[in-house]
Amino acid sequence: MTIVDLNGADPRLAQFHAGIYWDAFAAQHEPLDAWRRAIATGLLSVRLAVDGAEILGGICFERYPKSGVGFATYLVVAPAARGQGLGERLLRGAVDELGGLVLGEVNDPRRTGEWARLERFQRWGARVLDARYVQPSLGPGLARDRGLVLVAFAGKDPLPAEIDGARVRAFVEELYALTEGGAVDADVAITDRVRLVTLERAT
Fold it and tell me: Terminal CA-to-CA distance of the chain, rounded, Å?
């Protein structure tokens, strides 16, 4: 297995986008051309685990220059490669490279009942931001997603009990500016200090 970082012209980018990425994120997939533009500007990195011509998994991650916040956007492992620690390896590599505050998004299991993905992240040290978040539209024809929560990913050190809400707000504003070119959704609510919490299934 080899870990590779892709440029926008690499044919494996389109293969990954149309393959395991599309299968995992079909409801809110970003256009391939948007990926290529973001790679060209240095905003986006796409890292794959490959075995010859086979794509075993991949992660997309970004650093937002104004807020200085890292953002792990998509993590997916091919069905045949799951259960071997590859997802955690890809995530930890991206988080270590980004450094500082690294956020991500996950479906809110309190709304969807789908707990597995969030529970896996929490086992790896991630925590949920106790704040109301709405994902901006990621491309033409895609609606804002109101069913997500933000998570903070742990690096080499454990996460604190709370983080600076002003920095989170700056990141969300930057995210909206780059994706939609406009103001943040009115439902977004981020306090000055944001608690990091663990969500658990109701017993």
Answer: 41
